[in-house]
Amino acid sequence: MARRFFYRQFRRASRVQWALARRLTPAGRLVAGALLASMVFGPNTRLTVGYQAFTLLLVLLAIGAVCALVPPRRLEVRRRLPRYGTAGEPLTYRVLVCNPGPRSCRGVSILEDFADPRPSFETFATTPEPDESRRNWFDRKVAWHRWAWLVAQNRRLDVAEQPLGDVPPRGQVEITVQAAARARGRVRFRGMTLARPDPLGLVRALRHVPGPETLLVLPRRHPLPPIALPGAQRYQPGGIALASSVGDSEEFMSLREYRPGDPLKRIHWRSSARVGRPVVREYQDEFFVRHGLVLDTFLPAAASDVFEDAVSVAASFAAGVRAQDSLLDLMFVGPEAYVFTAGRGLGHLERMLEVLAEVRPCVDRPFSTLHRLVAERHHALSGVICVFVAWDDARRALVRHLRALDVPALLLLVADEEDARAPDETLAAAGVRRLVRGRIAEELARL
Amino acid sequence: MTPPRGLAGAALLFWGWQTGFLVAGLAMALVIEGRGLVGVRWDLSRADFNRISDVSAVMLALIAVYQVLANDSARAVLGILQWLPLTVFPLVACQLYSTGGVLDASVFFWSLRRRASERPDFPRIPVDLSYPFVALTLLSASAANVRSGVFFAGFAAMAAWGLWHVRPRRYPSVLWALVMAGAVALGWAGQVGIAEGQRALERAVAAWFLELARRETDPYRSSTALGQVGELKLSPRIVLRVETAGKTSPPALLREAAYNVYNAPVWYAVDAPFRGVSPAGDGITWRLGPQEPDAGPVVVSAYLRRGKGMLAAPNGAVQLDDLFVVELARNRLGSLRVEEGLGLVRYGVRYASGASNDPPTRMDLAVPRGEAAAVERVAHELGLAGSPPGDAVASVRAYFRRGFGYSRFVTERAAGVTALEDFLLRTRRGHCEYFATATVLLLRAAGVPARYAVGYAVHEWSALERRYVVRANDAHAWALVWLDGAWRELDTTPPEWVAVERDAVSGFAAGDLWSWAGYLFSRWRWSEREDRISGQVGWLLIPLLALLAWRLYSRRRVTARARGGAGPGAGLPRGRRLGVLRGRARAGGARLSARAGRAAVGVARAHPGRAPTGGRHRATARAARPPLPVPLRSGRAVRRRARGAARAGDGVARRPRGRRAALTPSRRAPAWRRGTGA
Fold first, then answer.
1. CB B168 to CB A199 under 8 A?
2. Over the stretch B344-396, which tens digit does the pLDDT of each residue have?
3. How many cross-chain Cβ pairs, A to B, lie less than 8 Å apart?
4. Which of A88, B132, B460, B506 could make an SS bond with A220 (beta carbons 3.0 to 4.6 A apart)?
């Protein structure tokens, strides 16, 4: 009840805050802040002359608001977005602005409009922020920090106001926009807003120009040293063709007599008819390295900083694999169990990063789903890289099972330094290396 | 967004001018505007900023405690507001003189500090305090309440200066100037309207309350008001302190107000507007009448709420000595009201027996119709009609000594009987308001002018303080009677009331001790001598600021040359260059001091006469030290205005203070409402 109440208030307040941030220039925000302060300190006209400041500031903002009633002239804007962005990295794209009118347009700027970053109530109610357990009772109950954190999670791109300069009549200009990608995922642009300040430079007049587009921001990646991944070459059913081409093209080696257990589809019917007994086609066996990259997505919450770091680690491995030498199977569980293979021309690593850019925590399935998925494929894997987000009995069982199957494994746990649920001695006994949040790049460099 | 050069300094000077802290404002302005001349910047870490923020918080807390102890809540808030620029200044100065040029939001919040220390990689929230500091300074100047129009002009000028700097270039300057001028004109009209609006609202509310009070005098609705005993009655809080010269006894009664019209249950001071009294040339001596005093002085110490309140004085007061107030007003009933003064006043009263400037009027003989029957009946019993005034007074005094008793509680009475009638004819028991009201009305019935007076009885000697103390439950009511050409006091309440009140209060030694401590602090705070406390508090702050200044001075510094072309990270973007300067982005891990030292040496080689070879730029660093605190101000403005008012007064009476001369209940609550009732 209280949570829903606070959710509604936050939602309304953030709406007002967003609208004010759009409408007011930095100078206007300062004037508005001073106006509030003068309201607080100068309500009694006998005690202070703060009301004089209040009146002047109010008039300044009122004049700006009146001037902002007339929207700026219509312009056509079109973005030229790159294929990807990367979280934590600057992003540059271009915007083409056309002025169809007969008069030039001066002093207008553009503001990007993104999809609403406010979380749903379900997400708000079930997703604690990372430091929430250490906050005081009031903060935990009100959950403002949770709200702010969730909103920040959904704001994947920061774009400042972009001044356009002079746009000549029936002409066009192209500007370069510098943005900062904050988090991985799909950025959804709703359009752009043309903004024109009032003569005092306090309030903006706005005009929305629709222009829906999307941009995928790939996960943050850390540089990896040359890593000798564990494991040897394994027999790959289907041969090299599986890894080097698409379709049914298989490299034929010879014919031989049928042995029990051979698949029926390999029977060479023409030769069988000629010799009177079953003959099967035999293909060349291929042995090469194939690794599994297991991403632990099982979290009790729909978002988490630990999970983001784990995705970054997985993306670092995905990007660091030498695609011409080996295969990499990315395994994780989302709405269902997924295996995505890349390497040796079979699939592009960018595609794997795209998958990782949109992977979400799995809150409604048990960890055993992932355990089963890994166990089913262990025979083809030279080794496994597991990136865990927690350490418990279920994860311990998977590690034990891999050991029992004699599958070499590089086991990594992304956790806070003082995570009491994963003491160092327990991790060391299981052969798990802790990647401490905040120092992940350094820890990966030491692998 | 940074303010244009000179704006912050001008705002600080304006603040200093308005609040009287001109020296402090000048010093801060020099520090802030001197950053363009000083080529040294300090490489301050987050811990340094946290320390500075803590110092600012401590200063704010000290000032807040001081203001709360020394003032009432409204003035304390304004006092804190006036001082805010001083408390924020260390942070702003350090921001401007740091290599980073901005603060991190974590300096303001413990939670962010903790997160920043635990998660060094967490993105910072940069905060630039420069423009908010200018706005804060201007708003603080408003707390000085200089109502000459200078504040509006200064504020408008500063606002225009700042807005001109960020004006949109798409509009011509002339248009901007016209719009700004229109805004200023509208703002001026608006602020006049707001001030007038508040006054009109206050007048309307006051009239409404007066109307309400009139309705309450309806006999059907307010018949029991006189019998009420309030909480203050039981409060042993010390409200006055009385000292006399030598071993002379103080006057038994100190009057705060007198009233002349009774409309049960309220006494009104009718046709008695307050008029300003002009002080003598020294600004602290106030003559109340032409008579020469023959007694006193009695020194009274009293607290004034928000610097306003009634003064207690013995009957026949003709002169007040050493009274530090800006405005004093007096009505023709002899009540004294301070219109503007300090939180504590300590004044000597000289008085003369038989001194009276205000002869009685017909209102001093009026008996309200509702009480006339009972009063006439008793007057008839006593044979007051036609008796000389002296005999009438003696008869009334003797009447109340026979068979009347003191009681703080009033029992139920029969329907249709007024409280006074019930007191006179049935119960014969009541508190001082009954006795005083009945005495006044009986004397009036006898044709002797009489008034109702409230104030305090002085009877308790404090061995702790070596002076007489007067508590809230010593509040008293009595009659004033016109005898032999003067108003004289007549207290008919049985003397046992003092013992009854004393018995009701016991075991208050700790409270008295606390009260005395508070009194000593208040005397220190509101000392007549010029700003004694202010200077001492200022000196107390010096070690704190000196320590801070030394800690900052000993930080790593970067010269302008080192920050520019010759320094580490030259040619890099600002953020990267600062990172290099802080030693974060250096691969080799060389310490900044070594690099800065090398840079300084390079400068020294290039300009032997300019750069100190030792790497210590004391002359330039000195300018960035936080300034020493200026003497704090305590009531200085009040005293200054008091003297100015004295100079300007020239003995001419001020304008009438009362706005409703026709029927003006005293602004002081009636005694029953305050809980008096002895």
1. yes
2. 888 899 888 776 668 888 888 888 888 888 888 888 888 887 788 888 899 88
3. 137
4. A88
How would you class A241 by CB atoms within 10 Å of its CB: exposed for 0-12, middle for 13-18, buried for 19 or more? middle
Q: Which residues of B touch A437 (CB under 8 A)?
A: 119
Cα Rg of chain A, angstroms? 30
One-character DSSP codes across A170-195: T-EEEEEEEEEE-SSEEEEEEEEEEE
Question: What span, in angstroms and rounded, lies between the C-alpha atoms of A108 and B436?
Answer: 80
* Dihedral sign (CA A112, A114, A116, A118): negative
- Give contacts of A 82-111 with B, CB under 8 A: 106-108
Average pLDDT score, chain B? 74
What one-character-per-residue DSSP string does B11-66 give?
HHHHHHHHHT-HHHHHHHHHHHHGGGT--EEEE--HHHHHHHHHHHHHHHHHHHHH
| Closest alpha carbon within chain A to B111 | A135
Measured between CA atoms, how close is A52 to chain B, in angstroms? Answer: 5
* pLDDT per residue as tens digits for the range B14-73: 999 998 889 999 999 999 999 888 878 888 888 888 888 988 998 899 888 888 877 767
Regions of chain A where pLDDT drops below 50: 239-249
**Which residue in the set B163, B186, B190 is minimally distant from A27, CB to CB?**
B163
Q: Strand, helix or coil at A235?
A: strand
Burial status of residue B42 (CB atoms within 10 A of its CB: 0-12, 13-18, 19 or more): buried
Residues of B in contact with A438 (CB under 8 A): 118-122
Provide Rg for chain B, Cα atoms: 34
CB atoms within 10 A of CB B250: 21
Distance CA A52, CA B139 (A): 10
B142·A438 Cβ contact <8 A? no
Residue B158 CA to residue B183 CA, distance in Å, equals: 14
Say if the Cβ atoms of B151 and A58 lie within 8 Å. no
Whether A48 and chain B come into contact, CB under 8 Å, resolves to: yes
| Tokens standing for residue B669 | 């609550």
φ, ψ of residue A234 in degrees (nearest 5) = -125, 155
Interface confidence (ipTM) of the complex: 0.72
Cα dihedral B274, B280, B281, B282, rounded to 10, equals -100
Residue with tokens 């075991």: B507
Q: Which residue of A has its CA nearest to B171?
A: A199
A59 and B CB contact within 8 Å: yes
Work out whether the CA dihedral A381, A382, A387, A393 comes out positive or negative.
positive
Packed helices A393-404 and A368-376: angle between N→C axes, nearest 10 degrees: 10
Among A302, A336, A362, residue whose Cα is nearest residue A150: A302
Q: How far apart are CA B455 and CA B433, in angstroms?
A: 11
In DSSP terms, B482 is beta-bridged to B487
> Residues B153, B156, B162, B165: is their CA dihedral positive or negative?
negative
**Which of B2-6, B112-116, B161-165, B424-428 bottoms out in mean pLDDT, i.e. has the lowest?**
B112-116
| Measured CA distances, B374 to B198, B402, B424, B450 (Å) | 46, 18, 7, 18
Distance in Å, alpha carbon of A103 to nearest chain B alpha carbon? 14
Residues contacting A89, CB < 8 A, separation 6+:
A181, A220
Give the helix/strand (H/E) hosting A211: strand A204-218
What are residue A209's DSSP bridge partners? A192
User: Nearest C-alpha of chain B: how many angstroms from A49?
Assistant: 5
Residues of A in contact with B157 (CB under 8 A): none
**What is the average per-residue pLDDT within B522-549?**
62
**Interchain proximity A30–B132, CB inside 8 Å:** yes
The answer to whether A55 faces chain B, any CB pair under 8 Å, is yes
Angstrom distance (rounded) from CA B272 to CA B666: 9
